[in-house]
């Protein structure tokens, strides 16, 4: 399989077969010094906004490499979009969740400071956490050769989630819910679908009440209790099948 790299500045009009494109910065440095890419090797490139291309490397050094485009395609953005609202969790469980969700095709993630979140993003940690999550999504997108790079929203409170519930289809993953996610009907509109996953202790009763009153619905995945690192990816896999993505 060809190596895959992201160059967000690429545009479709620059990437027709026969044209030469340039990769620079960290991507070029990683390709040449870590992956040992050399002239003649084949690479795949994307811009994270639907464009994918493949071609042969013409020149390669630590600062820049050039590629002759042999094939290019554009993929439309998915509708409705599925976003994972992932509560901050201790250890790396929230990071494991967003990494797997990216590989499974999530369209965006929202870091949530839930009532029962042990981990907190405060002060300088807010920007650092956002940067860390963005890096995880980028690397997972490259690993899975995704045409679209998911976005990371700003840190969100429960009250802010309640506002989102009014304009999206918000599904609260809770093991005590009576309805199953597999019973959720296929959407008939393009509203974003938000999968809300709580931290280790789950979503608190007060949060469930507030979000339900704002328009969210509780659903469960099955008869067992999943970790916060696995609930989101599991739910996403179900929606992929429900929406015909898989």
UniProtKB/TrEMBL annotation:
It is an enzyme of class 2 (transferase). InterPro entries: Alpha/beta_knot_MTases, PUA-like_sf, RsmE, RsmE_MTase_dom, RsmE_PUA-like, tRNA_m1G_MTases_N. One of its GO terms (biological process) is rRNA base methylation. GO terms for cellular component: cytoplasm. It comes from the Bacteria. One of its GO terms (molecular function) is rRNA (uridine-N3-)-methyltransferase activity. Keywords: Cytoplasm, Methyltransferase, rRNA processing, S-adenosyl-L-methionine, Transferase. Its main location: cytoplasm. It catalyses: uridine(1498) in 16S rRNA + S-adenosyl-L-methionine = N(3)-methyluridine(1498) in 16S rRNA + S-adenosyl-L-homocysteine + H(+). Residues 23-68 form the Ribosomal RNA small subunit methyltransferase E PUA-like domain. Residues 80-239 form the Ribosomal RNA small subunit methyltransferase E methyltransferase domain. It is found in: Cytoplasm. Its EC number is 2.1.1.193. Belongs to the RNA methyltransferase RsmE family. This is Ribosomal RNA small subunit methyltransferase E.
